[in-house]
């Protein structure tokens, strides 16, 4: 019997293989795409005010893969008191669109709400995101001489008032009708006032003193507002402030003495805060002289006599919601000075209600004191409580000083939350000048030789960059920094570094044997310059 042999030949796939799948599949076509739809909302952000109607949005349904029919559209995430017009849910066909608005009430909280627009059709469902930003109801008005900016939000009303009869000084910062500001006379209010180390003044205007005050002078004459406006959400005033003591400047009991400054104020709501105010100050020196480095009032804050508790944070871990400190504002001339690294302070009553003030561009230090006079309490009473931040300026020729102040009426704990939110947004520069003094030589000292000692101390809100020595207006050189001064660090805890001293050897042999003027200018790393009080000296070689 003969054997039979088989040879196996592999089947090769090629483009000609039509009915046979090389992959072993059935060879059937892929399934057809299922009909579907998309939903879109434009714009994706709406704005409204409490009790008002938002801007208009449009949602649209578009067919995909031959989708026919319609979808049911609803919305979720609406804040309390808010509804949609027209009322949702709505049925809409593919290829169509629908406009809608959000209607708010007084119960709708201010802030941002994240909404979702849902669309369903059978088992199909798609969403689109929408943001609703609800703001306060803000308006401005004028009643008599006072310009007002008012905000209503979250069931409360905050109001700020600038009296144009008193230079635009702030005579009211109130919450729900309670005004915290004392405006007994032109020396009170919330306002800026400037000083000159070379021109101190005494009581009752008996001595010379450069002191432009926004509201007016010692005799209650008001500074004149040269320009003012009250637009939809902003107040503005421009004023030439008068000298507090006019007697030494050609004025007196019957005549004001305008200063060499221009004060501009712009008041708006604080960013993102429905019940707080931002005061932007621009102080311009129109003179060609120098008003030497001195503590300034930027601003002075006077509140009514009930708000005697001084509240602040003095810990070493700012912006962490650490426990606050409280102190009774002592009776003048005593005062309390506090380290305030969060740069705010408040004067409150026993219920923690009062006025909180945040000044981000100054030194982290505030002080407070009280004046319990016998002339009555309240916004026009003589009794008052005062606070101000540590603010140092030199008013050089043509100087322009700009900065922001935030005023928050009401509960101090809630106000601190507002301050924290503002802090997250702010990028404002340091605007204050360094602080310092000359220890040697003393005024009218006689100097001689090639190494006459000039020494003192200085520190800044940032850091001291240079101390330059001038004689008769000419720079002679820069001092050596870094001398240990533990006494200064003890006098200014948490502010002055331990090595704030500086020294310089002045070569007097290059100067004539006569009277001269020694001047020290201190510059910080932010570019702010302090010109210290000049020192008259006599050179004798």
Helix content class: under 10%
Write the CATH architecture name of the largest domain.
Distorted Sandwich
Identify the CATH class of the largest domain: Mainly Beta
The rounded distance between the terminal residues' Cα atoms is: 144 Å
Helix and strand composition category: mainly beta
**How is the largest sheet built, in terms of strand order?**
17-18-20-21-31-27-26-23-24
CATH topology of the largest domain: Beta-galactosidase, Chain A, domain 5
Q: What is the rounded Rg? A: 35 Å
Indicate the mean pLDDT. 93
Number of domains: 3
The coarse overall form would be elongated
**Number of extended strands:** 41
Main β-sheet, in a few words? 9 strands, antiparallel
Annotation field: number of helices: 2
What are the segments in which pLDDT stays under 50 over at least 5 consecutive residues? 1-25
The fraction of residues in strands falls at over 45%
Explain how this protein is built.
This protein has 541 residues and is mainly β. It has three domains: 36-135, Sandwich (Immunoglobulin-like); 137-425, Beta-galactosidase, Chain A, domain 5, CATH 2.70.98; 435-539, Immunoglobulin-like, CATH 2.60.40.650. It is built from two helices and 41 strands. A nine-stranded antiparallel β-sheet has the order 17-18-20-21-31-27-26-23-24, covered by helices on one side. Strands 15, 22, 25, 28, 29 and 30 form a six-stranded antiparallel β-sheet that branches. Strand 20 (261-269) and strand 21 form a beta hairpin. Mean pLDDT is 93; it is low at 1-25.
């Amino acid at each position: 019997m003969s054997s039979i042999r088989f040879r196996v030949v592999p089947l090769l796939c090629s483009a000609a293989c039509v009915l046979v799948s090389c992959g072993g599949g059935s060879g059937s076509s892929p399934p057809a795409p299922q009909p579907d739809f998309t939903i879109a909302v434009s714009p994706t952000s709406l704005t409204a005010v409490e009790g008002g109607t938002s801007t208009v949005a449009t949602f649209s349904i578009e067919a995909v893969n031959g989708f026919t029919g319609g979808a049911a559209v609803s919305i979720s995430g609406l804040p309390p008191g808010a509804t949609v017009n027209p009322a949702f849910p709505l049925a809409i066909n593919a290829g169509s669109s629908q406009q809608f608005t959000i209607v708010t009430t007084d119960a709708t909280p201010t802030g941002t709400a994240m909404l979702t627009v849902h669309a369903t059709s059978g088992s199909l469902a798609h969403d689109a995101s929408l943001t609703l930003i609800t703001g306060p109801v803000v308006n401005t008005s004028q009643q008599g001489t006072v310009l007002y900016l008012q905000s209503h939000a979250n069931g409360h009303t905050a109001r700020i008032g600038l009296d144009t009869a008193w230079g635009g000084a702030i005579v009211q910062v109130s919450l729900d009708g309670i005004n915290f500001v004392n405006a007994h006379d032109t020396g009170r209010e919330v306002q800026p006032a400037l000083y000159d180390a070379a021109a101190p003044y005494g009581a009752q205007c008996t001595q010379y003193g450069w002191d432009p005050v926004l509201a007016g002078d010692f005799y209650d004459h008001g500074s004149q507002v040269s320009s003012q406006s009250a637009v939809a959400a902003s107040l503005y005033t421009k004023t030439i402030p008068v000298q507090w003591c006019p007697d030494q400047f050609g004025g007196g009991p019957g005549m004001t003495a305008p200063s060499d400054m221009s004060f501009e104020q712009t008041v708006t709501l604080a960013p993102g805060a429905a019940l707080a105010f931002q005061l932007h100050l621009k102080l311009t020196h129109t003179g060609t002289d120098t008003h030497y480095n001195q503590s300034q009032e930027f601003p002075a804050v006077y509140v009514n006599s009930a708000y005697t508790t001084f509240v602040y944070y003095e810990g070493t871990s700012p912006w962490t919601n650490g426990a606050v400190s409280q102190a009774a504002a002592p009776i003048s001339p005593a005062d309390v000075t506090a380290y305030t690294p969060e740069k705010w302070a408040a004067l409150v009553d026993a219920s923690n209600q009062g006025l909180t003030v945040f000044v981000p561009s100054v030194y982290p230090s505030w002080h407070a004191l009280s004046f319990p006079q016998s002339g009555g309490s309240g916004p026009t009473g003589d009794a008052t409580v005062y606070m101000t931040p540590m603010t140092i300026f030199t008013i050089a020729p043509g100087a322009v000083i700009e900065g922001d102040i935030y005023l928050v009426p009401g509960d101090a704990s809630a106000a601190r939350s507002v301050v924290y939110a503002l802090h997250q947004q702010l990028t404002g520069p340091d605007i204050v000048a360094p602080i310092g003094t000359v220890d040697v030589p003393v005024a009218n000292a006689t100097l001689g030789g090639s190494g006459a000692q000039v020494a003192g101390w200085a520190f800044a809100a940032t850091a001291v960059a240079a101390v330059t020595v001038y004689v008769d207006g000419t720079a002679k050189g820069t001092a050596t920094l870094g001398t240990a001064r533990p006494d200064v660090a003890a006098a200014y805890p948490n502010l002055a570094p331990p090595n704030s001293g500086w020294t310089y050897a002045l070569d007097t042999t290059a100067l004539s044997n006569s009277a001269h003027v020694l001047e020290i200018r201190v510059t910080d790393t932010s570019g702010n310059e302090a010109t210290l009080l000049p020192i008259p000296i006599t050179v004798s070689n």
